[in-house]
Amino acid sequence: MQVIDTELFDLLREKHGKGFQQFVEEKVVALAGDIIYENLGLETPMLEALAKEIDVIVNIAATTNFYRRSSSSSIISYI
Questions:
Q1: What are phi and psi of 41, to 5 degrees?
Q2: DSSP letter string over 32-71?
Q3: Does the pTM exceed 0.85?
Q4: Mean of the pLDDT values across residues 52-76?
């Protein structure tokens, strides 16, 4: 997971030290969804189960159209 190497996780990295990787493996789950759909396109039972378990959502979205000019892809990736 490349996102755990970002500044977003610095506080947790400091708190857990050498145990950070294990902490992440126990707590962070990648979930495929599609941001163009309401509720990421997830079914109600899944949303209800997630609502009981989740404290934080980190949304990482980018275009996957490899035929766009790179300048437009970069803009879309960071919005």
A1: 80, 15
A2: ---TTSGGGG--HHHHHHHHHH-S----------TTS-HH
A3: no
A4: 66
